[in-house]
Design a protein that fits this description.
With 236 residues, the protein is mainly alpha-helical. 72% of the residues lie in helices and 4% in strands. It has 11 helices and 3 strands. It has a 3-stranded antiparallel β-sheet. A hairpin with a 3-residue loop joins strand 2 and strand 3. Helix 2 packs across helix 8, helix 5 runs antiparallel to helix 11 and helix 7 packs antiparallel against helix 8. The longest helix is centred in the last third of the chain and has 30 residues.
Length: 236
Amino acid sequence: MATSGTELGELADDRPLLGRTSTAERVADILRTRIAEGYFQPGERLSEESIGKALVVSRNTLREAFRLLTHERLLVHELNRGVFVRVLAVEDVEDIYRTRRLIECAVVRGLGEPPFALDGLEKAVANGTRAAREGRWKGVSTANIHFHRELVALAGSVRTDELMSAVLAELRLAFHVVDDPRLLHEPYLVRNLQLLESLGAGDRDGTERMLAAYLDDSREQLVEVYARLVAEDGTE
């Protein structure tokens, strides 16, 4: 049945929402990136006035962006105090790794026949190696995140990509608390290369086993360091 002119007129009344929502999403993208880069640190209060002036956006738009990022568990709203970058609990970190194991291992298990499209993984390994050589350990962290994002991208699923991006964005909240990023990330440069070589050889089963062990070791190491730092800081 055709839509009536009256109904289309009502739909036209929603037109202003398009601009506002689009702007809020763009603001959320900017803030999400800044949080991932550590520009805004876990526990830091976000100033509506300062951020609104810097980005030249309205308070309503900014609040909608905050709402989106709160839904993604990157921000938390505290009544009568404001909006803060979320501080993960140790249990959050453990849950993130359980989710990563489910997603990443399933992707490798479900790959078709080799050869696989490994250009993105190769680039991430090269970027991580270069950052380590230059002593840029946050850059190593970023390259590692990109490696795992590209690994999941092999599934060719937009929904899986979006889920993994959200999980990795949360994980970086934990990384920012760690006081020695080299200790945390350096051991996985070699292991990323090993995963890449295993995929290059077409060994899905071997890659999945390596990946599961990799994620278990990474979880154990990060949880140990993170639990100590959070306890020392008294934020949990």
